[in-house]
Specification:
Low-confidence stretches: none
Number of strands: 10
Largest sheet: 6 strands, antiparallel
Number of helices: 8
Length: 241
């Protein structure tokens, strides 16, 4: 029994997942059963499972067991026109979302500067969770000036997309004015929200969307699961994704 036996077990389990032998949502055998199957110690099995959980292949649920984690492989293009549903729908992914909360708050200096309003101006902060094929891929907050978009949250729930909400306000088109990306470790609560291992990183994207004349519309701060989404930057300036 070598010290790296866990790597062999990990590779075997990963291959079974990728080959579809272990299907998404299926439950793995127990640690003792896996130890017997692989003729290894439980410590090696436990380490292999923990490593696969860190990469998003497995989900360890206390009291229930270990399950193969559905892992949509998403390509998300960030360009001058960045649209969530168009990005994912083109890949055959079922996009859904859930409102986590909405509140009226005074704009912080940072949000106010990006929205082009005075600090303390009332803004509507809408928090949403986004799922792809039922798997959480991101959650975050989008800020709008309350005076201009008083019913944004309600219209977003009724109409189903941000683009349609803007259209209801007479805004037929809009552009991505700026995008900032930052990778960082996930806090325990954010890992739970995304149903991922705490050691798996997240990507935080702060973006400003604006009208065609440059007038800011919204500031969003969204946390993405780094294991489930790969980002591409479109530098052509005319992407309509």
């Amino acid at each position: 029994m070598t010290r790296d036996r866990w790597r062999d077990i990990r590779a075997s389990l990963e291959k079974d997942i990728m080959d579809g032998i272990l299907e998404p949502g299926s439950q793995l055998p127990t640690e003792p059963e896996l130890a017997q199957i692989h003729k290894a110690g439980r410590h090696s099995v436990r380490r292999a499972i923990a490593d696969l959980a860190k990469t998003g292949h497995l989900s360890i649920e206390q009291g229930r067991g270990t399950f193969v984690q559905p892992r949509p492989k998403l390509e998300y293009t960030i360009g001058s026109r960045t649209r969530l549903r168009r990005n994912m729908a083109s890949q055959g992914v079922d996009v859904s979302g859930r409102m986590l909360g909405v509140e009226r708050i005074p704009a912080s200096d940072r949000i106010a500067e990006r929205l082009g309003v005075a600090p303390g101006t009332e803004v509507i902060a809408t928090r949403r969770l986004t799922l792809a094929d039922g798997v959480p891929v991101s959650f975050g907050t989008i800020h709008h000036e309350a005076r201009r978009f008083a019913a944004f949250a309600e219209r977003r729930e009724a109409l189903g997309s941000t683009s349609q909400v803007y259209a209801s306000y007479g805004i037929a088109d809009y552009l991505r004015a700026s995008t900032e990306m930052l990778a960082r470790p996930a806090s325990a609560d954010k890992a739970r929200q995304l149903r991922q291992h705490p050691d798996m990183p997240v990507i935080v994207i702060t973006a400003v969307d604006a009208e065609l004349d440059g007038t800011p519309l919204a500031v969003s701060e969204v946390i993405w699961s780094a294991a489930r989404v790969r980002f591409t930057i479109d530098t052509r300036g005319d992407a309509d994704t």
